[in-house]
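Below sits my pick:
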Amino acid sequence: MITRPALALLLLAALTACGGGGAAGSPAPSSGPAVPTAVTTSTAAAATGGPDASAPASPGGPGASSEPPPPTSTEPVRVERGPTDPPIVTGVRYAAHDGYDRVVIELKGQMTGYTADWVDKLLQDGSGTPVSARGGAYLQLTLVPASAHDLEGRRTWPGPRQVAANLPNVTRIVNNGDFEGVVSVGLVLDHRAPFRVTEQRGPTRLVIDVGR
């Protein structure tokens, strides 16, 4: 006959052999290698939480302007240069800026020589005929050597010979010459004012800023 203490010992031994000593509901430990868990990082805060970090900072700090100051000299400008392949004038653009008007002569090819000087009136190259354009002052730009036509004689500077710019000081822009390797661009102004000429490359451009 098995007594109660002996029966209890037998039951305890059976439970221990079956591994039933863990807490209820706890997962069994794994004997295999750990599997890494993929982590997804949200980018919503970076995209919407402030200024674009990829944008370059403005030079000089917040509120700094990249606009140059208005020109200060009225003296003529002359630059001599002789490129092996004279450039071709492909167009002229213009716009008003803070304190000055800007005219941009677009070129295809190397930078060439040029002059910028005051004249009493604009004349058509070759014939010497006065250009019908009334203003308070005239600034003549001359590019040497250069052309405004291709090898077949077709014009590369499209548009009319005169353009009404209607800027505060530059009122008209005149194509008054494309003759024997010389291209002339006349600026009709409301009044004489300081100006400057700068060169830009990539693409090649001649920039004329005229004060107010």
